[in-house]
Amino acid sequence: MTDANAYGEEVTKFCAVLRAELGDAIYSSWFTRLELDRITEGCAYLSVPTKFLKSWIHAHYYDKLRAIALAQLPDISEIFLSVRTSTFSVVSAEAEPAALARGAGAQAAAAGAPREIYKEANAGVETSTLDTRMTFATFLVSKSNQLAFSAAQEVSRSSSIYNPFYIHAGVGLGKTHLVQAIAQAATSAGRKALYLTAEKFMYSFVSALKSQNSLSFKESLRGIDILIIDDVQFLQGKAIQQEFCHTINSLIDNGRQVVIACDRTPNELDNLDERIRSRLAGGLCVEIHPLDDELRLKIVEARIAATKIVQPAFDVSPAVVVMVANLIRTNGRDLDGAVNRLLAHTTLVGAVLSIEQAENAIRDLIRHREAKRIKIEDIQKLVATHFNVSRADILSSRRTANVVKPRQIAMYLAKILTPRSLPEIGRRFGGRDHTTVLHAVRKIDALVAKDNALKRELDLLKQLLED
């Protein structure tokens, strides 16, 4: 391992080139807190202080960052971006906190055995760390995640028709908890399961290439019963994606199980090769929906019960529990934070919190409800219904006026209501070029400026999509 300080001059030049390429505004907004932690076996490990910053750079600037790093830092063949803690930098996906339910101390102790079985079964592969609290027993279930939970249990028992099994959800809704529960249940039953984050997969592959041990790496992956890849949206690099595609194809074709967790659907993974997206979409794709009222209440009650094991004096009234569950509607991590704040205030005040005191304690966590994630398919269906055409018409090459206008409106809405790029929108509209999408957006923009009726029509469609 090489200390990052040894590359002081190269790092300074790297930062200067990055600033020149991206401009002062972008560099100041996103890269001033980027640090080079270390260089190991030709891999540069960069870190940022927050997971949001890491995700944003991955989504918008990773290719540029990688190209400049490989050009400016000597003997570098790959880069890895992670989230650093206060004392050291770790790959953020491996340090991801428990998602929906953190078990009580007794449950965590009872779940300790699978980790040793898991390590022994995968002695030839560098695995990602399992959190022994993330089991099926500690996963809290409601209507929002029942299908994903039931399918995950089925997959953990034996290779099934749900192959690949693909779970997607927003942050803090439990996808990592479920896939780790699959790994631990499978290993407890004597199956060879391998859990890897996408970043660990990339690191292992690059290390195998460096050590000229790629054949052993491939054989290790293909010799397991169940492969689990978490945060697949971070999978980067053509060679790595090719190996990933070959691996999952080989496993599925030989009756082995593949499990994938991601923050979006396969069709929305713009950075992945089309063959991978197609293969992933061919299995069972399940979404874990936002937390409903029942589940939020269960989570708060479970967190308080777990906390009382180590802090017996911690007492929260039922009214405060209901208030917290109603006010914090985002995800399990924010509910974790709320319980921690209640604990701190109870400890400091030394009395049961009133409703007003509890609300003040969690004020920083109370947010407006997250906007609904709108999908291009939803836009196409709504616009087709509204204009009395079919979705197939919108995706077709027909050029009649009654089809062209709805198609252009659907493209326009896709551009302003989703984070998809112009090329991706074009691909989702029958494989059209990005210039076609740009033309549609500009045309609808121009029409809206002078046609109030069309503006009201678009406002209605937006409202229907956002509700």
From TrEMBL:
Location(s), subcellular: Cytoplasm
Assembly behavior: Oligomerizes as a right-handed, spiral filament on DNA at oriC.
Binding-site residues for ATP, renumbered to this chain: 172, 174-176
Function: Plays an essential role in the initiation and regulation of chromosomal replication. ATP-DnaA binds to the origin of replication (oriC) to initiate formation of the DNA replication initiation complex once per cell cycle. Binds the DnaA box (a 9 base pair repeat at the origin) and separates the double-stranded (ds)DNA. Forms a right-handed helical filament on oriC DNA; dsDNA binds to the exterior of the filament while single-stranded (ss)DNA is stabiized in the filament's interior.
Organism: Rhodoblastus acidophilus (Rhodopseudomonas acidophila)
GO-annotated biological processes: DNA replication initiation; regulation of DNA replication
Domain of life where this protein originates: Bacteria
Any one Gene Ontology molecular-function term assigned to this protein's record: DNA replication origin binding
Domain notes: Domain I is involved in oligomerization and binding regulators, domain II is flexibile and of varying length in different bacteria, domain III forms the AAA+ region, while domain IV binds dsDNA.
Domain AAA+ ATPase: residue ranges: 161-380
Gene: dnaA
UniProt domain Chromosomal replication initiator DnaA C-terminal: residue ranges: 375-444
Region (Domain I, interacts with DnaA modulators) location: 1-99
Protein name: Chromosomal replication initiator protein DnaA
Primary location class: cytoplasm
